[in-house]
Design a protein that fits this description.
Largest sheet of chain B: 9 strands, mixed
Order of helices and strands of chain B: EHEHEHEHHHHHHEEEHEHHEHHHHEE
Structural class of chain A: alpha/beta
Radius of gyration of chain A: 19 Å
Number of helices of chain B: 16
Structural class of chain B: alpha/beta
Strand order of the largest sheet of chain B: 3-2-4-7-1-8-11-10-9
Distance between the termini of chain A: 17 Å
Oligomer: heterodimer
Shape of chain A: globular
Helix content of chain B: 25-40%
Number of helices of chain A: 12
Number of strands of chain B: 11
Chain lengths: 380, 415
Amino acid sequence: MQKVGIVGYYQVKLYSDANYGRYEMIFEAVRGALDKAGLKKKDITTVISCTNDYYDGRTISNSFAVEAGGAYLADESKVEMDGAHALLYGMMRILSGNHKLAVIWAGSMASCFPYHSARLFETDPTWERPTAYVNDITALGFQMRAYMNKFGVSAEEIAGIAVKNRKNASKNPLALKEAQNPNLTVKDVLNSETYADPVRELMVAQPCDGVAALLLAPEKQALKITDKPVWITGVGYNQDAYYLGDRNLAESKSMELASKMAYKTAGIKDPLKEIDIAEIFESAAHEELILKEALGLTDKGEGPSLNSEINGEFPINPSGGAIGGNPPCGTGLIRIIEATKQIRGEANGYQVKNVNKAIASGQIGMCAQNNIIYILEGGN
Amino acid sequence: MGRQVCIASAGFSEHASKRSDVSMPELVSEAIEDCLKKVPSVSINDIDAFVNGNMPAFEGANIPELWMTDWMGARNKPLMRITTGGTTGGSVAIGGYYTVAAELPGIDTILAIGFEQQSQGDTSTGLASVAYGEISVLNTLGITYDQLTQLLSAGAAIGVASYQATNYMRRSKITEEDLARVVVQNRHNAAKTWWAHLKMPDLTIEDVLETPYISYPLRYGMVCPASDGACAMLFTTEQKAKDLCDIPVYVNGVGSVANETGVLGYNGSGAGQLDTSEQLGAKKSAELAFGQAGISFPRKEIDYAEVYSPFPNQELMWIERLGLFEENTASEMYENGVTALNGELPINCSGGVNSTNAIGASAMERPAVAALQIMGKASNQVPKTVHTAIGHGWGGVINLITMMVMSDKPTRKIN
């Protein structure tokens, strides 16, 4: 695979109830990314958006965002998954040789729709939706319980991930205010309301409002646009079985297969040694551990023993991760932007030292049914 | 960068207004089976990745690929979902093309799948929020929700399409009879296509003109049905396609362009455009796709076209805007038999969307049929040899256009 350059990015601040409209947010993100890269609307050759009609509350919701997203008379399309999947399509378009500058934007406003009702429409309409017993909330409970039971990981260790991410988020000015807490303790997390036993509310990535945009260019153009390009050198994506009973919830087979594809492409043999940080889309604290293990950073069940604080052995989610704010559709793209920031040394306040290679991931579905992962590298 | 991409096969499910005999995943697997049956050496296990899409609002199922995984054979395979409204099928086909063109390691052969089971939901309700345009903007202009219902949404998409039809009729000076002629040709063609929905081999212009208006100038007998159906296409590399079929169909150009104007243009969304038959997006999409394919004179170089026209006025409009005929001459071509099965430039020999419309599949069925016409394997095969063909899709509010230019030779330049 030829490498593709990330040449610009912009993320609006995340709010639990933003005081401005969807189109303004999209415009701010896309215009912001172009301005920061010193580019103009006319430079855009293709636009890939990522929204969801259920989250936006209207059919073909992307058709109303054509102008705001810079897609008027540009070659455009929409991926209805996570922003990280939209990035994949943008990347494919660059790799095909047909396009020279791709804009990818993703996000939504969870304050405008009942998030969990919309997620319920993602369940099997015959067997699961009528009873609503299996849904995105209960699934997190099943997943955490399966993980704890199989590997003997304690609730305290999992709560520790929530503490880490919320502490990290407090240093990230764009993170969700409600998610930021520098003084949180494991006890606070375990004493918060039950979300879906054994998951506690403070362990969960709270849906919020936000949009992010990212610019991609082929190698030659990327070097002209910026002197600090970040290269995508590997990508992998994979979809697991749907029925939770068909899956081993304590692990993530789709992430294992996705990372295998990405590592192979980027020529990575030992991810723990060769990669410096990871930005992982975790729907809840325990999922960060499951995905961390699936990425091959530790053995199965050993996730908690690898120190992933900002100054730890292998920092994960220095930005606060999805727990630091989870705008549906936008979260995965924000992970890639945060990894890009770390490589470019632009993560003010939560910068990890000497980052040259990073992992960033996105996901959709219950218990991270579909995972996508990128390998990002710095240097000209 | 990139590599040549070929279509090795395409398949369809049977289409009808109610496919109550199958569930949505079963409908999809019918199309996959028909697609893979034509390339016996490929089994579902040989598929490296999937690209999928449908209209999410119509069946009340969000991202149905999640629970349809096993039915499609997609467990633990890479999968991407693309949806763009009416153009979904076309966008999915283009997504399939890009997935192969990108040369991602280990991804050579992919299945692209478009589907819709409209009988499981209410399409008009699903479309209401599109046809209304930008509700908040129209409200600020003093138009109430009740008035909107009367103004725009009569029969969902048709409310918007009737504006487009009158705009086009004003420009081209055609009559209702000319519209009916297009319908008759389509329904006769559908009668010879095994998977088509409205098969009417004996339909006459008079029959069509006797049906009542839904919204002037579009009569009941002129509009597309709401179908249940699915379509699947197999995209692969040049080398593999050569092994799989006698005539691999090269995808030489693609485009997907919108000139929707939403809130920022303050036009009350796409439906508020002054002339909805102008179609800048279609022109730009054609320009892009023909440019990539190295086609300078579409009128001479295209042998066959499948265009997305639920309504007959659109069929006339598209073939003009896409550069196949001069402006305001399309109707004459139907009168003179130029667009008929044995004509110089046959259009929509599958019966088109006018006869079969499973929305998420429709815009994919266009390139799928066009590809089969090049292979000589179409259900209603044209007698002449087809070298180069186009498959077009229409969606968005009033204007998001997908285009795919296909040929039996590679003409796209790889840098």
